[in-house]
Structure of Tetratricopeptide repeat protein:
Amino acid sequence: MMQEDDLWKSPEFQEGLAAYERAKEQDDGNYPNADMLGCIADYYDGLGRTDEAIAIADLALDLYPGAGAPLYFKGRVTLHHNDAPKQAETYSNQIVDKSSINYLLLKLDILLYENKTTEAETFLKEVYDRLPDDQRDPCAEMIASMYLNYDHTPEAKAWLARSSEKKEHSYRLEECRIAENEKDYARAEKIMQQLIDEQPYNDDYWNRLGTIQMQAEAYERALESSEYSLAINPANDATLTMKGKALVELKRYDEALDFYQRYQQKNPDDMKGELSLGIILTNLERYDEAVMHYQKAQRLAEDTAEGLDQIYIGMAQALSKLQRADEAMSYIDKLAELDEVEDTEVCTERFRVMLETHWPVEEVAAYMEQALGTYLFGKSWQGCFLFYLFGKTAYECHNYALCYGLFQRMSMLTDKIPKWYLGFSYYAICSKLMKSEDEFKKALRLACRMNPAEAKEVLGDRFPDDVPPELYYDYYLEWEKQNGEYSEEDDE
């Protein structure tokens, strides 16, 4: 089964696309067949030209009524663009060949969209066995892919196992997606490395590898993969944005700024690019410029509402740094109106503005206690989480005494919550700053045991680079022994 990116590059598709564009220009009626027109509609939709894509599908249905490919395309657009599963169902019913892959996949898409997993499995078992033998392997891979689109990994694994084409790239790419869904990034990376060994000049493969490395927080490797991809195809937009994200994660903000400024010159209406520039400029403490880019991102996001939560948070943080408290709070109010945003996030960002714009201590304390009280009553986990968020925010605002007090209070709740792992590194560093050595050691021990990644991020600059975060506590005890400050109680 050919992957979509490979399909667009194939000579067969390029010939079909040229034939369509020639027939359209000459108006001679010599259009490609229904399957090719369905592929061309998909291609145009992928370019963001959805209206043209729908027109191509309509043309195909005028020429070939009941054809599966254009009806499959129209059904998916109706389902995912318009949130209209009933209308999508009417398109599936119009497909003449009910034994076709197009019919099967559209019905499956609708059932999974409606969260009808049991009905989906029943339907597949009825239809799959009626497929011709030569269609079953590619269809099993497509079914697995569809399940992965909805994060149904066990079903995807079961259907992929039905395919005998285990050496094909299409099969191994779905294996890679399964590994990603299971957060087995080492296995996913290994699969992509093997595919790249076989096709070293496939820029999409390098981009996919970099995406996996980004998920694994291996940002240096992701940056290297993006460079390989861009060396093959400098115009790969997905890789360009991945490179920018890797630079930001590596805190190489000057390079990231130069990169995104050049990217935005070519893509001036890219909301995510403007948002990224706002984030980078905030980290460079160029807050006035950051506000300008957040404002542009907000204008670009008006139609889709995509990214508004990040835009509002970014605006509030930049305005807060500029001591424009009322404006910052107005963006927190906008944030609170978004359905997808958790109340704890709104509370935390409001708390941040209060600290950074130097609200009276008693007002900050009253707000903090009110917010914490809402989550502490019978909700240990939520209360603990808000203590963590408030404490981390206080640390970021350099209010170490407040941070220390918040994590002290959080520690009184964590015994009730098995496997709690957040915030111990912040508690450790603030205990050290407050000269509470016993609390520092206790928190450091928990940080190393429960959350080495957080320990590395928060405490890493206080330990040698070659000491893994899991061993920070042991290293500190050894350091104490050598400096005459060690107590045998620390080994208990």
